[in-house]
Amino acid sequence: MTRTNAKGAPALPLNTILSGDCIEVMNSLPEASVDLIFADPPYNLQLKGQLHRPDNSQVDAVDDHWDQFDSFAAYDQFTKAWLKAARRLLKPNGAIWVIGSYHNIFRVGASLQNEGYWILNDVVWRKSNPMPNFRGKRLTNAHETMIWASKSEGAKYTFNYEALKALNEGVQMRSDWVLPICTGHERLKDENGDKAHPTQKPESLLHRVLVGSTNPGDVVLDPFFGTGTTGAVAKMLGRDFIGIEREEAYRKVAEKRISRVRKFDREALQVSTSKRAEPRVPFGQLVERGMLRPGEELFSMNNRYKAKVRADGTLIGGEVKGSIHQVGAALEGAPSCNGWTYWCFKRDGQTVPIDVLRQQIRSEMRQN
Ligand SMILES: C[S@@+](CC[C@H](N)C(=O)[O-])C[C@H]1O[C@@H](n2cnc3c(N)ncnc32)[C@H](O)[C@@H]1O
């Protein structure tokens, strides 16, 4: 599927895996067209020799050619180039997540700042089932770090605060995420039964990233697609993806994997939203639109107080004049009051909270 840009020209190769070097491919895509980038770049592990378990079996470590760089300087140059290409693709309010280990993430963090990104958080993905340190010479390496950054300082990046809080059973989501590494049925295997990719990330990680920092219909690009974890989760969650991967074998694995994924239904894709994210409706608009008439009486929820609506959208109750919130607070002798839930009007013998009228206006706004 291709989307058209503002001028009507075909633009984005949505829901496809592009082959080639990610820097060249990203430079060929239209500027400011992507909402989120998730990147899991080469770690530059610099492994020296084979690694064995105590039973002498060989550890399947990341020693692939795509992870080899001649020097830190070569890695830095590569990082700078792909981060620059990625930033060009982001919409002004777009954001990026980059995942890495102690081998590369500090270098990536510095490059992110040098390229003009604005770091929002670093998230420690604590692995609940890490691989032990077989030689016993260092600590068990039990986490990876993700850096979340907006395109620039002051950008209005997407953050679904309430949705992440809901995922965390009503408690504000923290920056340390305890999730297992990818094992069992989720781990993709090749025809010999070996791991199809050495660094396949768990879907749970991408689920949290995408629910927290994108909305359905957003475009998510992954320049180091591997087995397509980002694409698989994006598809499930009703986001569009663009994957870039240089290795044909990985592209094939990813294509097969994503073709089997089913998108969740529309209702399941709705997430909790912040009340602050709702459009503001001034009380006066209810009066201007004739939903409430000047002179009409409002009643407090507890039925103890009354106030009259005035033509300018203020209330008068006894001696007190002011906004729905001020008059409610003054009558109750309270420091503050949410006038929207405090005041009710009467229709056909029923007592109805004024908030119902505000919701009616908001739902009209959403439809337009
Ligand atoms: C760390 S892995 C990503 C794994 C992926 N997140 C997953 O869950 O399967 C990095 C991938 O980037 C690819 N890659 C490395 N350099 C690349 C480049 N310059 N352009 C495109 N792909 C590249 C590698 O082939 C490898 O599959």
From TrEMBL:
Q: Which InterPro entries match?
A: DNA_methylase_N4/N6, DNA_methylase_N6_adenine_CS, RAMA, RM_Methyltransferase, SAM-dependent_MTases_sf
Domain RAMA as annotated: residue spans: 266-366
Enumerate the Gene Ontology biological process terms: DNA replication; methylation
Q: Keywords, A to Z?
A: DNA replication, DNA-binding, Methyltransferase, S-adenosyl-L-methionine, Transferase
In the record, what terms sit under GO molecular function?
Answer: DNA binding; N-methyltransferase activity; site-specific DNA-methyltransferase (adenine-specific) activity
Keyword DNA-binding recorded = yes
Q: Does this entry carry the keyword Transferase?
A: yes
Give every DNA methylase N-4/N-6 domain span.
Answer: 34-256
Q: According to its UniProt record, which reaction does this protein catalyse?
A: a 2'-deoxyadenosine in DNA + S-adenosyl-L-methionine = an N(6)-methyl-2'-deoxyadenosine in DNA + S-adenosyl-L-homocysteine + H(+)
Q: Where are the transmembrane segments?
A: none
Q: Which family does it belong to?
A: Belongs to the N(4)/N(6)-methyltransferase family.
- What's the protein name? Methyltransferase
- What species is given as this protein's source? Pseudodonghicola xiamenensis
Upper lineage is: Bacteria, Pseudomonadati, Pseudomonadota, Alphaproteobacteria, Rhodobacterales
